[in-house]
Amino acid sequence: MANKASAAAEAGIGADVVVSKPGYLEDYLTGEPVLDRPEERVRQVHLRRLVEEYGYPKRHMRTEFEIRKGSKLIGPADIAIFHSDVHEQSNLYIVVENKRQDSKDGVDQLTSYMSPTKAPFGVWFNGTSTKCFSSHTEAPYFRRIPDIPKYGQTLAEVGRYKKSDLEPATELRSIFESVHNYIFANQGLLKDATFKEILKLLFLKLADEKSAKAECDFSITDDELTNLIEGKNTSFTARIAKLFSRVKNEYRDVFDSSEEIRLNDDCLAYAVSALQKISLTRTEADIKGVAFQTFVGAYQRGDRGEFFTPAPILQMCIKMLNPRDDEFIIDPACGSGGFLVEALRHVMSRITTARPDMTEGERRDAGLRYARTYLRGIDFNPDLAKVAKMYMVLYDDGHTGIVNADSLLPSSRLNTQALSSGAGEIRDGLFDVVVTNPPFGTKGKITSKEKLSEYLLGRNWTKQGDRFVPSSKLRPGGQTPEILFIERCVQLLHPGGRLALVLPDGILTNTSLRYVRDYIVDHLQIFAVVSLPDGTFRQSGVNPKTSVIFGIKKEKQDDSNEDRVFMAELDRIGYDLIKKTAPLLFLRGEEGDVLRDGSGRPMIDTEIPQLLKEFERFKVSEGLPF
Question: How far apart are CA 566 and CA 141, in angstroms?
Fold first, then answer.
């Protein structure tokens, strides 16, 4: 029987590096165990990128390669890449220096290693920043370049990519973080402004990848970078400005026509050089999802009551609701769009399974039609609404269904805003599925009579017999948004529609909120309740205990709930919930080695797959029709 993992690896870079056994990592080049150190995690991430993104053969690479200056040993290069499989100093092609995450030193060390060699290129990488150099026989002896060439290419070919040259990314978190850190350090923008500039860059990158032009416009060559550094005119900035004009035309619901890129030339050049060789559209969904949610999570910390839902919980909710490709889905507090993206992925998986005869292009078209027709999201925060649109674009679009609005507005006003924004209808009774993690723990209350009058839960409730019923009077002190969200979700569903709703446990247990529970059982046939582990939403010193309730909207209001309810309590969701930003936890064998599935992938330590199997059996036994 497997021992459960008890400790997570260090947070941040290298979070998805495989831990072969306690205290050791699995070396990407050799498959052998190497001591688990912060610098080693950075090196393992870099090795994989050099092989899988740049194309360098493993047989051309060595770690800890000793470099000599004459007869003197001056140090081992963290990674050495050779012209061929002859591992000699005279055959060095690229020298790599890796440092622990966020370390600032090591560039001088890199150039000292390059000096006695004939290696034309050097790379310094600390997990969140990359610096590339070419060597010369006269000053400047080590010149900054936008990137090292990919295998088989020359420096002159860097930045002259065609769309067909782009490769999927093997790891995006460190790239996103390096771009963020460089802009933050070299532009002087505040956190929010930096975040918005990076969103613009991602839209630029995706718009370029999806254009019909064979050559990439989102690119920078060595000559263009040199001209920028020397203050000379370059076609680079004009090309990027023209590309942003295209973005503003194609995404008018995201960008105002007056918006401009605020980055200086140096920051813009760094960001483009970091992203230009990869294909975001062809990068695996999980890699994009982890990177994007990590990036967004670092920007938003729940200051307004938002608590971003961990990916395993997103997946659990969507799989339990099991949406079809002809069902309308809405998240009325969509945040960065995690539930909607997960719903899109789920439906695409169903299409792929049901229609193996479809070509890849036909499946993509089917997914796009589904996303544009059936997916809706609302968020009150304009920046988060924009983030959700970006996330949908990363997954082949569907962003038009996202609207920046107040979900608690009177229904007619909300629908008018949605229609005017181009998102499509958002009206009561339209939706087959509602899934959301509404803002909770907010300090303010809704006091607007216009809003409160829309909701039974905006009224005073009085006790009649053994239950509570609403009166005609509005609550004089107002109502918390999290409670009004419950009713808004019910309103959006048609009878027979189903719901998954994350709620603080206090709503389900506090005596003073008994009337809320009476409303829930009056309007929903509860079929499942899943208690989430302590720490699931730990942010900024706040740690609310929560559960997910699943229900079907009743045809008529009554207080019965005669059917059985699937009850589950999760302790492990695959993440270290103490550290919050820490990486995945893996299942281990008796000797502490990581267990792997039939495909050789490490097995994540989570109870969710077993929960889903048990729920499927429950669903069949109860005859639940979805």
Answer: 68
Helix axes 235-250, 265-275, angle to 10 degrees: 70
In the numeric block, the tokens 């959006």 are attached to 492
Same domain, 374 and 490: yes
CATH of the domain at 373: 3.40.50.150
Q: 250-284: b or e for each residue (b if 16 or more CB lie within 10 Å)?
A: ebebbbeeeeebebebebbbbbbbbbbbbbbbebe
For residues 117 and 222, membership in a common domain is answered with: no
Mean pLDDT score of the chain: 87
Closest residue by Cα to residue 144 from 278, 264, 273:
273
Task: Locate 262 and state its tokens.
Answer: 């605020």
Which of the two residues, 486 and 465, has the higher pLDDT score? Answer: 486
Is omega for the bond preceding 439 within 30 degrees of 0, making it cis?
Answer: no
Q: Do 438 and 395 fall within a single domain? A: yes
Task: Give the mean model confidence (pLDDT) for residues 304-330.
Answer: 86
Number of domains in the chain: 3
Give domain status of residue 10, yes or no. Answer: no
Query: Quick one: what percent of the chain has pLDDT higher than 90?
Result: 58
Does residue 15 form part of some domain? no
Asked whether 264 and 236 are in contact (CB, 8 A), the reply is no
Q: Tokens for 279, please give them.
A: 């294909």
Tell me the one-letter amino acid at 382. Answer: P
The pLDDT of 587-597, averaged and rounded, is 74
**Domain interval for residue 185:** 173-279
Q: Is 273 in the same domain as 307?
A: no
How far, in Å, are 99, 103, 105 from residue 111 at the CA level?
Answer: 14, 17, 12
Q: Which helix (H) or strand (E) element contains residue 242?
A: helix 235-250
Please give the average per-residue pLDDT across 160-169, as a whole number: 92
Point out which residues pair with 573 in neighbouring strands: 606
Average pLDDT rounded to a whole number, residues 561-575 = 87
Highest mean pLDDT among 12-16, 90-94, 246-250: 90-94
